[in-house]
Each structure stands twice: as C-alpha cells, then as structure tokens.
Amino acid sequence: MPMQNSVVLDPSAGLGPDPETEMTEKQKVKLRELAERADEPFDGSLTERQAARRIAYLEEYLN
Structure pTM? Predict the structure, then answer.
C-alpha cells in the first residue's frame, strides 16, 4: 500500500511579502538615500519585494 503524504502547507509560514504589496515607507526612504548616493534613478513604484532586491543591490554596489 503506497504511503500518503498528509502535509498541509500553511500559506503564511515562512513566505516573503506578497509580490504585489507596495514598498514600505521605510524602504522608500532607504531606497531614495541609496539611489542618490549611487547617482541612480529612484523608482517609487516598486513592490516590496522589488524594493528589497534593489536595496540589496545598491548596498552591495556602494560597498
């Protein structure tokens, strides 16, 4: 008899922010500051995930 896997995934467990969620005010401030320092354009329309990636990229670029 085959074994059945009865694991139920909790949709909120360990998942990142909703890909469509607008970036937070804290992210906007940080991203604007980093963009200015890197002489890069600031895009205020990014999602929370996109902003997190852009912040990580700019921090790496500036260090």
Answer: 0.70
